[in-house]
Amino acid sequence: MCPVNPRPRRFWVVVSLAVACGGSEPAEEVETVELQSPEETDSAELAATEEEEAPSRQELFTRSRPMMGTVFIIKVDAEPAVAEPAIDDAFDEIARLEDVLSEWRSDSEISRINQNAGQSPVAVGEDVYRVVKAGVDVSRWSRGAFDLSWAALRGLYDFRPGRQRVPDRAEVRPRLRHIDYRKIRLDEEARTVFLEDEGMAIGTGAIGKGYALDRAGRILREAGIESYMLFGGGQVQVHGMRGDRPWRVGIQHPRNETTYFAFFESDSGSISTSGDYERVFVDSRGKRWHHILDPRTGLPVERTMSVTLMAPDGLYADALSTAAFVLGPRRALEMFERIDYRAEAVMVDDQCRMHATPGTDERLQMRVELDRRNTLPDCE
Ligand code: ADP
Ligand code: MG
């Protein structure tokens, strides 16, 4: 992709993923959403509210609720009498999904699938079936770079400050052979999921939040709300127009958390980000230990800094951004060509160079200039 001159804009929304805590306990994850004006791009401190920057635009009705180890935020362009009950229903739906999808609750459907690994198929509800099926699709599309059964590695790492832990090779090696999405058996008619190998486990951390936003969006639309923006753990979903133009979702600079280098514009889409700057710690040798693991090695992926991807639905957007992250830009571009699913991705490799799927330019607005090798500025 060619460098594009930054174009000043009056206003846009930036989604910023706060690094800090996070870890194997979901309650420790933190996410912030900041509204910034273009003049203030270099400083999160100067963040302005949307309304102040754009007094002519309809004020958005906004609510947030902590769930799924992150904070979900819903912004709608609607009267409070319509917005409030609809947002409550949307949050309740996400909470319901957390109950069935959680890897942390021993009575969730996902946990029951894991508890019965190597023993028997488990009957599941429609939501879990859909998520597992999509997870297996993306596992296959990415040839196991994304692998829903990555969770055999769960518990080996701890990213929380003060509790940081990295496993040694001897701990990792025996777990790797239990990662194999081809051993996830789905029976559509009986709606069951069976893990063939006893040491296997599946985990929905890279896919569940995207699905939750799909369901929440549907509830808002059913309530007659056409213009909304949803956030949750690296996922964003937009629908309708923000006044007279589409919504804008900023793409965070992977090495400069207070700035972003581009934004996607959309009136109907899911935007998902996977980055090596969340749930991470840097060791004394400068190595980054973060939460997206290569299923072949059990180690954090080093070939990518971030992937931001736009797709028609959150379920696939979420999983595909993780898949592209693990593959790295070159192999991810091959995957996007190969699969029968439309997604637009902006990827930053380990040299801080940007790569994008063909045709992305139309909906992507750059905020910085890239050098001749497509390197982002301020990458130290
Ligand atoms: P986030 O959870 O911050 O939105 P991702 O969607 O990229 O980020 O998902 C990362 C999470 O996915 C990890 O915390 C872990 O739960 C899970 N995971 C890690 N590595 C893989 C992998 N190779 N395939 C599938 N899921 C993974
Ligand atoms: Mg994901």
Structure annotation, total helices: 8
Assigned CATH class of the domain at 12-82 and 206-283 and 301-366: Alpha Beta
Alpha-carbon Rg, integer: 20 Å
Q: Helical amount among residues, as a percent range?
A: 25-40%
Shape: globular
Q: In CATH, what is the homologous superfamily of the domain at 12-82 and 206-283 and 301-366?
A: ApbE-like domains
Sheet-strand content, in percent, reads 25-35%
Bound molecules: adenosine-5'-diphosphate, magnesium ion
Mean pLDDT: 87
Quaternary form: single chain
- The residue ranges in which pLDDT falls below 50 over 5 or more consecutive positions are 1-56
Return the string of H and E elements: EEHEEHHEHHEEHEEEEEEEEEHHEEE
The main β sheet shows up as: 8 strands, antiparallel
Give the secondary structure arrangement, pairings included.
Blueprint: E1 12-16, E2 32-36, H1 50-53, E3 61-67, E4 70-76, H2 80-101, H3 109-115, E5 122-123, H4 126-141, H5 169-176, E6 184-187, E7 192-195, H6 208-222, E8 228-232, E9 235-239, E10 241-242, E11 245-253, E12 256-266, E13 268-275, E14 280-282, E15 288-290, E16 304-311, H7 314-327, H8 329-338, E17 344-349, E18 354-356, E19 364-366
Antiparallel strand pairs: 1-2, 3-4, 4-8, 5-7, 6-7, 8-9, 9-13, 10-11, 11-12, 12-19, 13-16, 14-15, 16-17, 17-18
The structure holds adenosine-5'-diphosphate (ADP) and magnesium ion (MG).
Adenosine-5'-diphosphate binds next to helix 7.
